[in-house]
Amino acid sequence: MGNNNDRRQPRLEDVAALAKVSHQTVSRVINNHPNVSTGTKSRVEAAIAELGYRRNTAARSLVTRRTQTIGVLASELGQYGPANTLLGVQQAAREAGYFVSIAAIKGAAAKAICDAVRHLTDQGADGLIVIVPHDGTLQVLEDLNLDLPVIVVGGAGEGRLSGAMVDQKLGARLAVAHLISLGHERIGHVSGPLDWVDGKARVDGWREELAEAGLSDELLVEGDWSADSGYRIGQQLAEQRSATAVFVSNDQMALGLLRAFGEKGIRVPEDVSVVGFDDQPESAYFMPPLTTVRQDFEELGKRCMDLIRAQVEGDAASGALVVKPALVVRASTAPRPRLS
Amino acid sequence: MGNNNDRRQPRLEDVAALAKVSHQTVSRVINNHPNVSTGTKSRVEAAIAELGYRRNTAARSLVTRRTQTIGVLASELGQYGPANTLLGVQQAAREAGYFVSIAAIKGAAAKAICDAVRHLTDQGADGLIVIVPHDGTLQVLEDLNLDLPVIVVGGAGEGRLSGAMVDQKLGARLAVAHLISLGHERIGHVSGPLDWVDGKARVDGWREELAEAGLSDELLVEGDWSADSGYRIGQQLAEQRSATAVFVSNDQMALGLLRAFGEKGIRVPEDVSVVGFDDQPESAYFMPPLTTVRQDFEELGKRCMDLIRAQVEGDAASGALVVKPALVVRASTAPRPRLS
DNA sequence: TGGACTATGGTTAGCGCTAACAGGAGCCGG
DNA sequence: CCGGCTCCTGTTAGCGCTAACCATAGTCCA
């Protein structure tokens, strides 16, 4: 009785009283200020431990004008890439003592982006990481003219906003070079939507590699990333039989393609070689196991977090940041068939 | 000159000055308090719009002791289910004016869970949604004895913590009932890890449905959710040839199974029927298209958010909440083969 | 020996907001 | 015509913390 064990949460004041110092000294200990004698420091630390004191984030934010929160704006969070990028961001953030707040949107309408950004800034996010791989995103964000660090994943880092990306063009070139090295000369491409940054970059990579080898880049069909679109395009390609190899812009569409080919009696890789993009965990178990391009999304997320932290803390200038992809060869590619 | 356009952010005080009222009146307008005359209200609203005023969350949290933040603790965020549950939570949260902060962990070690929970509570989360589908999770959380609302996804709602889940047992029974209705009598099960709540529930459903039909539940093999484990188990099953139908506990393992059967010359569904669980978007494009059980994760997430909001705001008691799954019949199931 | 400097720790103000109370205007019945 | 309502608005305090300043004692050099 008479004690105040039932007080909601201990405050600096409580710790100070127990350690017989002023609340400010406790604050100094917590924030690792110099000029606190070791004796005092350990007394304070003991008091903190005894009371189970935890600093109140709201109070701290109010006075420092920092929330230690990074906002992540993401569309398509259900997809492999974005989800894993978020994972990487979150891990790096927690290690650095930051919180991660998310805002998920569907599609990439300017209004949706603005609403989500506002939601995050309302919370007082110190910085923003944007994982919205559509073309217009960069413009929308620049127009918003935010006064906090922003990193656009997939962005190239032009303008005031920083970017971070896996080198899509390189990935595409690796895929196509692999097919060329197997002797293929008619190499088609099933692209993602061309208003997606990544989709376009992969098309460019495909084109460039073909151009350097003096091959034709006529065979281009646009998909929508879904297995369904891959399936339908695969049916078309099966009837045309115009290519001996197809570079598909993601693994899901490649899955659809594989099924369409299977139904039409086209053997992969004996008749046609197929290369995907992403290297989702399932891709090794497609029929046949898919040759594809691996992107390290988690690494990307980590690097994003490092970059934005540097910006928030004023340690470094803005810039762009590129992660390298790698080709993973499995069983869906083979040398060009001799006859046709 | 002389104006203060460059002030960082307008405060209540600034709005009040412009509208010629006290800051408290502005606060009343913002919080929709009654007893503000319509004239004053519209004057204040005009001032808010003119200055582009936005309430400071930290200051508000400090005094109300509410952060309007829900913490989501998730493992396996790279997987389809958890990612989409998070999506649903986030959407419902934003609509309700809540923020969502995440903490992702790998595995489900007690220490990892504690650290993550502490991270979230340090931020002052008003409530917690836990998406960690391992067995021990519930116990760890109960031991932590948190004094905020917690919802455990996949939990059954025993004890002080609320739960929310898709009815896994029902889903499993739907799958097995479907196979039984096709005349199958030897129905195997490739389960998920048995220390996962969902994995165990599906085993139970499989057993119960078989028992009611008077069939044997001998054929049980434990996988680890990965396509890889499905593949290896598929190879074993192919050699045994002891079942005419297999209920697989998720779509990814089913994919591995399909490939193993394909390699061994076992036709699906002519020789063996296969049913999956989850209905990932790709499952319709497996070879053959997979009959599976659909779980509406987004709906689950939304309901979680509603439930926790009710608890945070004191509107309702705790409880458990169940979402119904549905069978999706595609081409991987067929009547039992006559011979064999 | 005194002035200046350093190491340490205390005191005060205020971040931007809401809760609690105070006060004044208008209205009614007795 | 006054007490006691209701409706609206203003005043004050304080949430828990950090920044800025202040006070004291010890130290060193001229």
Report on this model:
Chain A is of the alpha/beta class and 340 residues long. The first copy, chain A, folds into three domains: 44 residues, lambda repressor-like DNA-binding domains (434 Repressor (Amino-terminal Domain)), CATH 1.10.260.40; 128 residues, Rossmann fold, CATH 3.40.50.2300; 128 residues, Response regulator (Rossmann fold), CATH 3.40.50. Chain A is built from twelve helices and twelve strands. In chain A, helix 1 crosses helix 2, helix 1 crosses helix 3 and helix 10 packs across helix 11. The longest helix of chain A has 16 residues. The N terminus of chain A is likely disordered. Chains A and B meet through helix 4, helix 5, strand 2, helix 6 and helix 10 of A and helix 4, helix 5, strand 2, helix 6 and helix 10 of B. The first copy, chain A, binds a DNA duplex (30 and 30 nucleotides) through helix 2 and helix 4.
Summary keywords:
homodimer; 340 residues; alpha/beta; 434 Repressor (Amino-terminal Domain); Rossmann fold; 3 domains; four-stranded parallel beta sheet; 12 helices; 12 strands; 16% strand; elongated; disordered N terminus; DNA-binding
